Sequence to fold (227 residues):
Amino acid sequence: MASQAFRRRSAFDSLKGYILVYTAMDFPSVILECEADTAQKLIKYTPENRFIMHAPPNLLPIIKEKIPNSKHYIENWMLVRRGEANFFKSEFARRLRSEEDASKLAMLLSSREERPTGTIQRYFDWISKMPLYGVFINSELVAYAGSFIQLPQVWMIGGVYTHPNHRNKGYSTLAASAATEEALKNAEAAALFVRSDNYPAIRVYEKIGYKEIGEKLWVDVGTGLKP
Fold:
């Protein structure tokens, strides 16, 4: 993870913006937060090739000017604080830990046609380093969710996915709930983002207690991924 920040000189030396590049996933994930007059300076620190950027909607004209081939979507950022969540517990949900779990995660994610499938070793590295939770039905991993960024104040929840053959049965709720419960044991809040027109997912997160805190751009640069 790397970051760059610009400050203006003042009595309080106030921060004008920052860019953070997270490299633990298949593609770098970039978070850009800044004022418009700083965006052109910070955007040059993005990776050269394929990455996903999250940025304020008002920066879209600058992003399109600097990265004309990018695609963008609107995503809702949602947050739940400790003491405000509703947990949905189940004997079918547990944390992923073993190489066998990694193999089942690879099998599950191979059904996600719009995203590249990683190796079992890649997923085992995820399991070893990050808290991921799955829902198992008859020994088959049918849904998962996890936290890919853990900060003292907030954990980011992501990767929520259910196999197409097992949707509309509440399994995403169980997986996201388990990941959120783990997050709120360790941080004051859990946050996530979801495409603004993904109403079924938004309803899942609202059941757990997440509330929308704002909108961001999801900017795809050469990955073909959507939020």
Q: What stands out?
A: The longest strand covers residues 71-81.
